[in-house]
Amino acid sequence: MLFLAVFCGFLAENQREHYVEHQREKQYINSMIEDIRSDTASSPIPVAKRILKRNDSLLMELKNPGIFSDSRRAYYLWSESDYYVPFVYNDRTIEQLKNSVPSGW
User: Fold this and answer.
1) Which of 44, 56, 93, 101 is geometrically suited to a Cys-Cys bond with 31, CB 3.0 to 4.6 A?
2) Which residues contact 9 (CB under 8 A, 6 or more apart)?
């Protein structure tokens, strides 16, 4: 009888752990979706596209033979071409997942 009680307790605990892990999985997925939304909302892609257009204009200006007589536009485009747009990402969910894995895995 005692064996049956311990065995049923083991099954109940296993079922509870499975339920808790499933709920944690849903929380991680929702958190990751929020991270992705925040990353795409602060995307540097529009700024990078403008910079690429300026760089293309700079290349066309440098190919123009009239650059030797008037290079003001080329200087302007050159000064705007080295602008760097850093991509800042949100990795809180990944860090939580890393910290939740037991050591030795």
Assistant:
1) 93
2) none
The CB density around residue 71, as the number of other CB atoms within 10 Å, is 14
What's the count of helices (H) and strands (E) in the chain, helices before strands? 4, 0
Q: Cα 43 vs. chain centroid, distance in angstroms?
A: 9
- Residue 7 backbone zone (phi > 0: left; psi -120 to 50: alpha; other: beta): alpha
pLDDT in tens, 45-66: 777 788 888 888 888 888 888 8
Tokens 């760097």 — which residue?
84
What's the whole-number average pLDDT of the chain? Answer: 84
Of the candidates 42, 19, 39, the residue with the CA atom closest to the CA atom of residue 94: 39
What's the confidence (pLDDT) of residue 75? 82
d(CA 56, CA 60): 6
Q: Are 33 and 49 in contact (CB under 8 A)?
A: no
